[in-house]
């Protein structure tokens, strides 16, 4: 699990850095309406990925749904923020409905995180 946690910490760090970079770009790029939400999603979920990974590793979340929720947060954030960022800079998204798919995955992952907390073994 330690290697997995380290990988998720790296992903969270990359999300955080990208979120700050997009926030800076949003302040300087004209008509950057998509970059603010992309930045917010990256920054909010960087912390969530860190917390979910570490809570799962510490046994405070049930392992299987905890890991599934963590990976759902990673994938959902990447889809949502990646699609908005590509639309802003390239003019097209990842694929049709990528941002809404990412958003729905994020909602589901948060709910799964709640379930993982409810199912966590008692100490």
From TrEMBL:
InterPro entries: DUF423. Residues 1-23 form the signal peptide. This is DUF423 domain-containing protein. It comes from Rhodopseudomonas palustris. The chain crosses the membrane at residues 35-55, 67-86, 98-120. Keywords: Membrane, Signal, Transmembrane, Transmembrane helix.
